[in-house]
Recover the amino acids of this structure.
């Protein structure tokens, strides 16, 4: 059966979902809902089959087997009643918001008398670059995709949505909404707050001595990479999960105070060893809340234009470099570049292309 999928909100995530469905489910019929100019772009780029403006939401949802709300949380909550009334019997509705508890409660009320089924969702993938123009069919490859059914959700509906998500190469994880938000506060929202704080702290020191940011490479860049995340996305996250984020900040402050004592005592070996062991438990075959980059080291010669040459070669193959850093420079000998990509697939493609050009490449 050809699945009919309606996506409300054709931005980075919604556009990437549409591209992924078109790539991995070529028989799927994908409908998009957004502003007129975005719909025009998405249709011209063959991202969607047909588009509607938000004013005709009923028409967009009426015949859909799946409806995915890919908007910020406040917009998603506002849309829930209209979507619940518009869907046909047996339709499955989900969202992509990164906070779940409040939204799932709102959905419970909106879908109480609906013939459709709502299941909360959160694909743990993203990019610093917003908008449909940055959408990528491989964005969800090996990414964790959380679904938050409750005890009343029909198992058949959960199975159908999980099957659909699996088709775009994501890994389904079932969690309760409250548990999702608690974990997200610790491993996603707290790191975002820490990255911002560390960046602002050192930037303040840099105002007095410009050498601070000149020396800020390697580990500092890695730790503050997410400090450039757009506030428009984080506004709703911080508001919707405020209590849990505050609890994690307090907990981390206590942990930092304990570490301070160990620094003062010169007693850090156990902390380093325990940290190293714990980090090994992080899965390397899936992407989680932190949306890591997929890095590639490239050995290059010491000559002008080499970075531009590599960038142009990959651009011709439509491979986007998310970040680039010179790791090592040896005068008259060359050095090593670190290239970062949005997916393992993009990194593999880049590695293959550059190796054919004679470059020595290694996954990082």
């Amino acid at each position: 059966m050809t699945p009919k999928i309606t996506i409300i909100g054709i931005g980075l995530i919604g556009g990437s979902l549409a591209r992924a469905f078109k790539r991995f489910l070529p028989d799927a019929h994908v409908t998009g809902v957004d502003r007129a100019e975005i719909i025009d772009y998405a249709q011209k780029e063959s991202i969607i089959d047909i588009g509607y403006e938000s004013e005709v939401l009923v028409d967009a949802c009426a015949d859909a087997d799946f409806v995915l709300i890919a908007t910020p949380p406040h917009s998603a909550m506002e849309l829930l009643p209209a979507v619940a009334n518009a869907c046909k019997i047996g339709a499955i509705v989900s969202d992509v918001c990164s906070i779940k508890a409040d939204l799932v409660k709102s959905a419970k009320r909106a879908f109480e008398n609906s013939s459709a089924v709502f299941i909360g969702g959160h694909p743990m993938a993203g990019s610093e670059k917003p908008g449909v123009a940055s959408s990528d069919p491989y964005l969800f490859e090996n990414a964790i995709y959380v679904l938050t059914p409750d005890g009343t959700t029909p198992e058949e509906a959960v199975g159908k949505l999980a099957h659909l998500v699996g088709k775009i190469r994501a890994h389904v994880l079932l969690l309760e909404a409250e548990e999702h938000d608690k974990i997200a506060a610790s491993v996603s929202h707290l790191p975002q707050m820490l990255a911002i704080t560390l960046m602002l702290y050192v930037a303040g020191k840099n105002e007095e001595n410009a050498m601070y940011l000149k020396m800020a490479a390697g580990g500092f860049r890695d730790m503050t990479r997410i400090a450039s995340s757009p506030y428009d996305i984080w506004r709703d996250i911080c508001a919707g999960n405020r209590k849990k984020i505050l609890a994690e900040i307090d907990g981390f402050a206590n942990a930092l105070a304990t570490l301070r004592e160990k620094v003062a005592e010169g007693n850090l070996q156990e902390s380093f060893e325990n940290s190293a062991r714990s980090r090994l438990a992080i899965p390397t075959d899936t992407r989680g809340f932190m949306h890591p980059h997929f890095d590639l080291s490239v050995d290059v010669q010491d000559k002008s234009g080499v970075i531009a040459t590599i960038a142009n070669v990959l651009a011709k193959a439509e491979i986007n470099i998310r970040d680039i850093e010179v790791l090592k420079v040896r005068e008259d000998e060359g050095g090593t570049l670190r290239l970062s990509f949005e997916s393992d697939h993009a990194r593999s493609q880049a590695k293959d292309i550059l190796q054919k050009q004679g470059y020595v490449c290694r996954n990082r």
